[in-house]
Amino acid sequence: MEFEWHIFLWHITVAVLLVYMCISLAMFLTVRLKLFLLYSMYLFFLSIYIIDKNDYGMVLESTILTRNLNWYVQIVYHFIYFWFTFQFINYFKHFPNQKKYFKIFTFSLLGVGSIAFLICTILQNDSLFLNYFLYLHIPLGLSGFIFILYKILFVKEPMKLFYIPAISFYLIFSLIAVSLTFVFKNYSGIEPISYFYYAVLIETTMFAMGLGIMIKLKFEENMQFQKEVEKLKVNALQNQMNSHFMFNTLNSLKSFIIENEKSTAINYLNKYAKLTRNYLEGGMLEVHSLKDELLAVQLYLDLENQRLNNTINFTMPEIENSLDSKHKIPTHLLIPLIEFAIWKGLFYKKNNKILQLKMQEVNENIEVIISDNGYYNGTKSPKLQDKEIWDGIAIAEKRIKFFNKSNHKPIVLSMDQNKKGGTIKLIIPPLTNSLNGYT
């Protein structure tokens, strides 16, 4: 049997359409975007039309009804194609005022075509319906697509990079196929329908590529949105921690004023102002340097120690510049942990209260250890309500949870307290994908 190129193209075209249709339908069921449903419907009706163009004999017996259906199927997929186009290139986003006119135009094409199909079928006149299709429907539809193509040339729309070549190839090659079939009937080259197969293969492949890029962009947009949501949540938790600390500190200031310790109150207020400034300056940052965190901790410890009549002996680590530039830490994360050690443990120690903060690099991570010799007996603190202390820990744990969603390696917090003292251990890996730009 002699090899015939147009038959080979028919097989390829049908196979490609069915594959694209299945993928598009699966994407619609997954992401529920109307765009994929429209593309699936377009491919379905286009496949019906092309399947009937085989050289093995018509799928349906050739009658006036089936010949009219052949043209009517094209009217249907042209209608779907218009609305797929509008979705694909976000046409009405760029030209919102044209929506009602195109709605009238496309539904009129479908409605008039449907009426013409019914009348011509009832009258048993397939030539009349063919003339309607060739000399009214195609010119009107073609003018609509050319208008859309012209308008989209002048707007900033990423999908037009796929739409313009796709629709251009489709229109040109389809017109060649129609012209060779109905106008230049003595043409003796390759089968005219082959040009239509070329048009369909190029067009559907361009659209498939565009839809793939669109899904990628949607995914990236969704990821960015999720990051923004996480940032808002982290900022909200940061603000909760700020207000939590400020409320407790102002209570202490009030106590100094009531007890008429004016000089102590002024000194305390000065330290409080410095720490408040530190909070405000760092409040919009998700992470900051180790030295910035230690500065905030130092200011906080000075305040809390003053509230306890300077009875706590605390030691702070020295951070080398190389380590400070290499690692970051969630802003003010250590303060609620220090607060817990002071008010749940050291407060109950009668004398020789010791608090140590160690910070070192271990296996590319920063290891923070807060140790104290406090007495953890489960008694509620008379100067700081139990709920307020645990609120600070809860906020810190929530912040760590949100960090761990976007970081490759998790931040690990462990706490161990007894009547002989307490240890809080924090393992902080290199922070990546930070919402305030740090990697």
What would you say this structure looks like, in words?
- With 439 residues, the chain is α+β, with helices and mostly antiparallel strands.
- Helix content is 67%, strand content 10%.
- It is built from 13 helices and seven strands.
- The chain has helices at 5-31, 34-51, 64-88, 91-94, 99-122, 126-152, 160-182, 192-258, 262-282, 290-307, 321-326, 334-344, 386-406, and strands at residues 287-289, 312-315, 328-330, 353-362, 365-372, 412-418, 421-428.
- A five-stranded mixed β-sheet has the order 2-4-5-7-6, covered by helices on one side.
- Strand 6 and strand 7 form a beta hairpin.
- Helix 8 (192-258) runs antiparallel to helix 9.
- The longest helix is centred in the middle third of the chain and has 67 residues, at 192-258.
- It is rod-shaped, with a radius of gyration of 36 Å.
- Mean pLDDT is 83; it is low at 380-384 and 433-439.
Please supply descriptive tags for the structure shown above:
single chain, 439 residues, alpha+beta, five-stranded mixed β-sheet, two-stranded antiparallel ribbon, 67% helix, 10% strand, rod-shaped, disordered C terminus
Would you spell out the secondary-structure blueprint of this structure?
Elements: H1 5-31, H2 34-51, H3 64-88, H4 91-94, H5 99-122, H6 126-152, H7 160-182, H8 192-258, H9 262-282, E1 287-289, H10 290-307, E2 312-315, H11 321-326, E3 328-330, H12 334-344, E4 353-362, E5 365-372, H13 386-406, E6 412-418, E7 421-428
Parallel strand pairs: 2-4
Antiparallel strand pairs: 1-3, 4-5, 5-7, 6-7
Helix pairs in contact: 1-2, 1-8, 2-3, 3-5, 3-6, 5-6, 6-7, 7-8, 8-9, 8-13, 9-10, 10-12, 12-13
